[in-house]
Amino acid sequence: MIAVLFDFSGTLFRIESAESWLRGALAEAGIVLPEPEVVETARALAVAGALPGGTNPVRVPEEMAGAWATRDESAELHRAVYTGLSRQVALPDPALHDLLYDRHMSPAAWQPYPDAGKVLRALRERGIAIGVVSNIGWDLRPVFREHGLDPYIDAYALSYEHGVQKPDTRLFAAACAHLGAEPRRTLMVGDDRRADGGAAALGCAVHFVDHLPVTERPDGLLPVLDLVDEGGKTSASG
I need a labelling partner for 145 at 20 to 30 A (CA). Which of 50, 64, 121, 131 fits? Predict the structure, then answer.
């Protein structure tokens, strides 16, 4: 069986901006801040790397370095790391740190890339098995369901559910096993050359896309359809 594996964040979906994220949490908490303070606080949170799926921290605190490296291997560690990063930024209510973390897990915080549905639907019409392989600390299935993409996904291999994270080949192997697919007939699509590129060690072909805002990458996934031909073969691409 031929199969295509997709990364989640930066590949099929993109998280909202740090400013939108903060505004959503403030609204939920009923807190109103002066506009300049909202903008500056959002900037500080982005610099701290507190938004999962957003930019990485400019500097990971030394005492968090070990946890940062393995943050996607459990739900508890993932929450601890990201709320720890957000606590580097002063917020008007300490409860906002957990509220922000909860906000990023909501389907409303994520948008699919414009061509994601088109590509997934086309693959399904060709009879190609589809999996999602993600380094993540929470269940992303509701995001796919809310945006109408879950019917196209045959298997999810999420790092926190397996206790290993990409580039460990065991996570890709788990996805292939779920799909009943041979790695050499499987294509991995992702935005991180190190993490997603780990699939190559298992024998998968690998194709990379750019981790850009949704509005700046309207058709970055379309080449996947050319890489998976009707004859059941996959080819690697840079």
Answer: 50
Which residues have C-beta within 8 Å of that of residue 29, sequence separation ≥ 6?
93, 95, 96, 99
Query: pTM for the full model?
Result: 0.94
Q: What's the pLDDT tens digit per position in 101-152? A: 999 999 999 999 999 999 999 999 999 999 999 999 999 999 999 999 999 9
Q: Within this chain, do residues 59 and 71 fall inside the same structural domain, yes or no?
A: yes
Q: Are residues 62 and 115 in the same domain?
A: no
CA atoms within 13 A on the CB side of 16: 20
Which of the listed residues 108, 137, 156 is the one where a domain comes to its end? 108
Torsions phi, psi of 15, nearest 5? -70, 155
pLDDT reported for residue 234:
57
87, 108, 129 - which closes a domain: 108
Q: CA 49, CA 68: separation in Å to the nearest integer?
A: 11
